[in-house]
Amino acid sequence: MRTGFPIAQPGQRIGVLGGSFDPPHPGHVLISKVAMRKLRLDRVWWLVSPGNPLKAHGPAPLDDRLGAARRLVVDPRIVVTDLEARLALRKTADTIQALRALYPDVRFVWLMGSDNLVQFHRWDRWREIAAQVPMAVLARPGSRMAARYSVAATVLRRFRVAEDRAATLAGRHAPAWTLLNLPMSPLSSTKLRAGGT
Length: 197
Ligand SMILES: Nc1ncnc2c1ncn2[C@@H]1O[C@H](COP(=O)(O)OP(=O)(O)OP(=O)(O)O)[C@@H](O)[C@H]1O
Ligand SMILES: O=C(O)c1ccc[n+]([C@@H]2O[C@H](COP(=O)([O-])O)[C@@H](O)[C@H]2O)c1
Fold this sequence. Notes:
Number of helices: 9
Bound molecules: adenosine-5'-triphosphate, nicotinate mononucleotide
CATH topology: Rossmann fold
Keywords: ATP-binding, NAD, Nucleotide-binding, Nucleotidyltransferase, Pyridine nucleotide biosynthesis, Transferase
Family: Belongs to the NadD family.
Mean pLDDT: 95
CATH superfamily: HUPs
Pathway: Cofactor biosynthesis; NAD(+) biosynthesis; deamido-NAD(+) from nicotinate D-ribonucleotide: step 1/1
Radius of gyration: 16 Å
Function: Catalyzes the reversible adenylation of nicotinate mononucleotide (NaMN) to nicotinic acid adenine dinucleotide (NaAD).
Helix content: 25-40%
EC number: 2.7.7.18
């Protein structure tokens, strides 16, 4: 494996949480831990994005966000990586394709908050993403119901896996996705940037 890329063992089940992490917060840690438990994952990789392709304003410098994420994370199963910057990729469809090529023996699951499922149909090649990797959507205040009735949820309805079968998700062929309920965290980077909690 190239320098700077996370190490993975063959057969590992790894959740991938892409985000701006501007700044990272305990809500990110909470959903990572819930995903590991409910999906029976070995690791969660935080892909600290060079910049969300849909957001007009760039985030804080990547090194600041990586540093903050590494300081926040205590659980050794959560791995913070700048893999997208190293590969010069921003679009999730490209990232997933690259991950599958780099780690052919790993079972990846794409993780995202329910706010992201609501606008998932606006992502570049979103159907291709759903066809490449199982996905788990974590409930977030204000978007849980909207996610359930979103365009992507409707189009992908027949591939939905019931939450009580979530432990099987990583072993399934895509498309396959599930909605995970959890004690929801109201934390958001937007609020933190505005000086809130
Ligand atoms: N409190 C939370 N509950 C559930 N999912 C969350 C929460 N916070 C972040 N996420 C999810 O984590 C991923 C990365 O989040 P991101 O770095 O964008 O933080 P954010 O708090 O959503 O930031 P912003 O407010 O700037 O959009 C996204 O899929 C997002 O939906
Ligand atoms: O590929 C896309 O078109 C796309 C559009 C919007 C968001 N994403 C990804 O979604 C993840 C969450 O983004 P953010 O900014 O909400 O933290 C992050 O990995 C982004 O690269 C990807």
